[in-house]
UniProtKB/TrEMBL annotation, chain A:
InterPro entries according to UniProt: SBP, YnjB
SUPFAM superfamilies (UniProt xref): Periplasmic binding protein-like II
Taxonomic source organism: Promicromonospora umidemergens
Residue ranges of the TM segments: none
Protein name: ABC transporter substrate-binding protein
From TrEMBL, chain B:
Species of origin: Promicromonospora umidemergens
Keywords attached to this entry: Membrane, Transmembrane, Transmembrane helix, Transport
Residue intervals of the ABC transmembrane type-1 domain: 66-271
Protein name, UniProt field: ABC transmembrane type-1 domain-containing protein
Bilayer disposition of the protein: Multi-pass membrane protein
Pfam families: BPD_transp_1
Transmembrane segments: 66-91, 98-123, 200-218, 253-275
Length: 422, 282
């Protein structure tokens, strides 16, 4: 799960450029603006969608590097879609940007309908790039009957890494940043990052974080930025906005002050999350961190991490993000794609893929809205002494910063914290 | 005279099948790197010939990177030459075939595997730390420490095997006869080592040392796995810039790569000059 997130993010970073170039070209080539906005096919009711969908074959383009995810789609989601008369065909791609490139190239060539891609598993930069290119069908997500199980005020579903979702993609999974500690060594676990920093100062050498630009280390920077500024709403939208410099200088001051209390006196940092995990496993530090806490159970079970490993619950919540299903504006089988996106939100489907043995993806639903018997099954899912249930883990989850922040934060850390004091 | 030209021409022809792909692959890679570093193949924006990428490099990063790269290469190559030559001479003198087989077996192990193994051995909570029962925080910082100990040891270990194999093969043909002749003329073991063995091994030492130095300057994985966050060797700096989410950093990454190649090429030229002198001595 952590690797999945990391790989997807890296793939996103690497793959965006070709897409960006294609977008720039398509912007000159054709008036794309009229493609965004509401569904021009104008489905008025779900009955029309369901009727149109029957007999369609939907191509779901998704990153194919996760065996469990592939198996879930083929063995659980596809049969359920077949029951509604929709054939679901999974098209594995090495990089989500490949799917977007295909759509943008088709639009650029003037192919406004009958496109090859019907549905894409997407989030963050690829969604934003597609949005700029007018590549997504918008305004269809409210039609989905199962969207009633979503919390309309959930900030993670309203914005995708800072880009407003605006009905252009339907939620599928959630991910949650978490810190873990060894309860045998940490008697009074901190309840905020500020308390954690104080704990680190009181226990020199027992805390550290992966050096950004590592994905997890970079997430820790964003979490710390929320802490020193007082929360996501206090952080300016972009790194060049008013107040951004003040926010980051407070962050650098805090982290530079913390440095001498870190592992090895802050002389060096673990190169990546795997290296931090090794330190934690070898009892060199008492904390580790991950964007995929569902993996912690397995690592405790196989003896890598101590049995006393626990996820740290922070009062103010931690970073979370969601990934989505989007329908290209020129998809050949939009109705079928909407049926699949709706099915993906069904509590039974969300429950099935939340099981770590099946896939282990956190649900996007609000469990209060789910029928009681199913909600109980979510609660019973793989009861863990290590990781709290997702509703507790995700309480007060902070939305991710805009993707524009990532590179400046990583560079700023290097200049101000890593090399600044030497 | 005529026969000599013909035979050297035939030799050149025989080398061609090996030379051609090497030149093509190397040339294409290097050419692409140079072109990208000069802004002629940008991922974003218009192609334009400029030295902007070179000028935009953070001078401190490049200079410290250069220092670290050269220091690691010099330390590990010196150590590799010492250990490799000693091992070769020991094998040659004692005629223990097993030792030669060990050296030959080490050569094909990838550095990545070697580095991971050395990490398991020397990390703060590695095998050695556990064997001596070190308390957390008390084991010396061999991995990721200020002196790059684990990095130099791994590179020296792998390269010493390479040196030993090259030196052994250079001694194998003639050394025994000359050594026995010198012994027959009354030369002691120390004299034979200095007057016979070392001069015979010198060209092989220069060649293998040069190759090892150039290799280490360009190697990435060992320093990444066993090194520290800052400062970083040139190869690590280049790869960090290459994988930066900001795609406009790509030309700078290639500029660092081109500089790294220049350093390695400089080492090869110096090695070739040294070889000429050593060969003349012989």
């Amino acid at each position: 799960m952590r690797r999945t997130t990391t790989r997807r993010t890296r793939a996103r970073a690497l793959g965006t450029l070709a897409t960006a170039a294609a977008v720039a070209l398509s912007a000159c080539a054709a008036p794309v603006s009229n493609r965004t906005g509401t569904a021009d096919d104008g489905y008025a009711s779900w009955e029309d969608v369901a009727a149109d969908a029957r007999g369609q074959e939907v191509s779901l383009w998704m990153w194919g590097g996760d065996e469990k995810g592939n198996a879930y789609v083929d063995d659980v989601l596809a049969p359920a879609a077949a029951d509604q008369g929709v054939t679901l065909r999974r098209v594995p791609v090495a990089d989500t940007a490949d799917a977007l490139n295909r759509v943008v190239s088709e639009l650029q060539a003037g192919q406004d309908s009958d496109g090859a891609v019907d549905l894409v598993w997407v989030n963050g930069e690829n969604f934003r790039t597609g949005q700029q290119a007018g590549a997504w069908e918008c305004g269809w997500t409210d039609l989905l009957p199962n969207s009633a199980y979503l919390d309309p005020t959930d900030p993670l579903l309203a914005e995708d890494f800072g880009t407003p979702v605006e009905g252009c993609e339907s939620p599928w999974h959630k991910a949650q940043f978490a810190l873990a500690y060894d309860a045998a060594d940490v008697q009074h676990p901190p309840t905020s990052l500020t308390e954690l920093f104080d704990w680190a100062r009181a226990h020199p050498g027992r805390f550290t974080y992966p050096a950004p630009p590592d994905f997890t280390g970079s997430a820790f920077l964003r979490q710390s930025l929320y802490e020193v500024t007082g929360g996501p709403e206090q952080v300016p939208a972009g790194p060049d906005d008013d107040g951004a410099a003040g926010a980051t200088s407070a962050l650098w001051a805090e982290l530079a002050d913390l440095e001498p209390s870190l592992w090895r006196g802050g002389d060096t940092y673990p190169r990546d999350a795997a290296a931090l995990d090794d330190l934690f496993a070898g009892d060199q530090v008492d904390f580790t961190m991950t964007y995929g806490p569902a993996t912690l159970d397995a690592r405790v079970a196989d003896g890598t991490f101590p049995e006393t490993t626990r996820v740290l619950t922070l009062d103010d919540g931690t970073l979370g993000n969601a990934s989505f299903l989007a329908i290209p504006a020129n998809a050949a089988h939009q109705a079928g794609a909407m049926v699949v996106a709706d099915l993906a939100l069904a509590p039974e489907q969300q429950l099935a893929k939340a099981d770590p043995a099946v896939w282990g993806q956190y649900p996007v639903l609000e469990l209060d809205r789910v029928p009681d018997d199913l909600a109980e099954q979510f609660a019973d899912l793989a009861p863990s002494t290590v990781v709290p249930p997702f509703d507790e883990l995700s309480r007060g989850a902070d939305p991710e910063l805009s993707a524009d922040w990532v590179a400046p934060l990583e560079r700023g850390w290097r200049d101000n914290v890593l090399t600044g004091q030497r | 005279m005529n026969r000599r030209t013909a035979s050297s021409r035939r030799a050149a022809l025989l080398v061609l099948p090996a030379l051609l792909p090497t030149v093509l692959v190397l040339g294409a890679g290097l050419g692409a790197a140079v072109i990208q570093s000069l802004g002629l193949l940008p991922l974003v924006g218009k192609p334009e010939l400029s030295s902007a990428a070179y000028r935009a490099l953070v001078v401190d990063d490049v200079l410290t990177g250069l220092g670290v790269s050269v220091a690691i290469a010099a330390a590990s190559t010196s150590l590799a030459l010492l250990v490799g030559a000693t091992a070769a001479v020991l094998v040659q003198r004692s005629r223990i075939g097993g030792l030669a087989a060990v050296a030959a077996a080490v050569v094909p192990i990838p550095h990545l595997v070697g580095a991971a193994t050395v990490g398991l051995l020397l990390a703060d909570s590695g095998l050695v730390a556990r064997l001596v029962g070190a308390q957390p925080g008390t084991f010396p910082a061999l991995v990721g420490g200020p002196w790059w100990v684990a990095v130099v040891l791994e590179l020296a270990w792998k390269e010493s095997a390479f040196v030993a194999v090259v030196v052994l093969s250079s001694l194998a043909t003639t050394e025994r006869d000359l050594d026995e002749a010198a012994a027959g003329l009354g030369a002691g073991p120390w004299q034979r080592l200095r007057r016979v063995t070392l001069p015979l091994a010198a060209p092989a030492l220069v060649v293998s040392g040069t190759i090892s130095f150039a290799y280490v300057v360009g190697s990435y994985e060992v320093a990444w796995l066993l090194g520290r966050t800052y400062p970083e060797p040139l190869a690590v700096l280049a790869f960090r810039l290459f994988s930066d989410t900001d795609l406009t950093m790509r030309p700078q990454a290639l500029a660092v790569a081109v500089l790294t190649v220049a350093v390695a090429a400089g080492a090869l030229v110096a090695g070739a000059a040294l070889l000429r002198r050593v060969a003349v001595l012989r």
